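Issue 218. Parser rejects a valid record. Input:
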Amino acid sequence: MNKFRLGQVVQSTMGHDKDAYYLVVELDENRIWVGDGKYKLLNKLKSKNPTHLKGINFCDTEISTKLEQGQKINDQMIYHALLKFKKSNKE
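Output the parser choked on:
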């Protein structure tokens, strides 16, 4: 059972991108595809091993709903969701 959900913010715990924040865009049993809307775009998502990710208790409900319903999202939506997360963590 996967502990991650679509639209959730995750933090990389391994690799050259350690400590980077991403948004979960696709899930399967063994891999999670994440993007940040700036460097990891929808046309070239980053594939991560779930054991190398830390789930953050923040989920963009708009993106989550769209992905679950099979609707399209764009890189700008991902970028702004991560920006909203980062701003909420500063306060």
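Fixed in the parser; the record now loads. The first helix runs from residue 61 to 68.
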